[in-house]
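Continuing the batch. This is chain 6 of the set; chains 1 through 5 are on the previous pages. Same settings as before, nothing changed between runs. Recording input and output for traceability.
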Amino acid sequence: MHDAEVAGLFHGVRLTPAQRRIAHCLVEHAGQAAYLSSGEVADLASVSQPSVTRFATALGYAGYPALRRHIRDLVGGRVPAPRTPAATRREATGAERSEWQRAVDAERDNLGLLADQLADRDPVVAAARELVASRPLPVVGLRAAAPLAAYFGYFAAKIHPDVRVLDHGGSVLTDRLEQARVAGARAMLAFVLPRYPREVLDVLRDARAAGLAVVTITDSPASPAAARSDRTLVAPVGSQLVFDLHAAPMALAMVLLSAMCDAAPADAQRRLEEFEQSAARRSVFVP
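Output for chain 6:
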């Protein structure tokens, strides 16, 4: 896969948020990246053209042309430059859209990319089987990723007997992870989104060292979390507003949870029925 080859160029390199957007763009369009100009990359990544040049030099190249030649050697084969659905919509309407509209357009594109990626079911199915078999199942998410970990954990508890959401850092996080491992945990799910907290990267390392299989949902194959995970599931993050949009990672989390239900259908159905009976008995929800 071209995206994995291109992503390998960025592993272990400390990048700024703008440079991460460029790296994500090059990975996302790996087949076309070998023939894009620095201006075209800047447009796709929503950064300035000088930022693309600085990105190339940060990777150790003399400039962007040298980086492009290296990518061309990696992927080979000339293909046309990418055209995003958002660009097609702008041409069709003949009107310039507002900043907010463009941000939502881009998020719709992110969901489209995720949908295309899910044509290959195997990575999600394999991750789901590992997670559903882990008793207990620790789910880690710090800072911006904490709400996603809680969102996943809330629904996962409906079909898994022991889900432990770890969304606070510090030494207590290490304590709780060790307790989960002693209790029998075999796998861990982590949400790692920009800006990547150093602490969560340390947790991934420590979890693997303790023998846990680490499944990570992150924003790009170029994410620093990818090198510290056994399985990496990718969902792009929207970066056109002041704060990131996480629609695609949230969608991927629910796809993964659905796959966990499929991996143990009898147990999932039984637990769901038990919950519904309990909720009805306690009048938890309004009729």
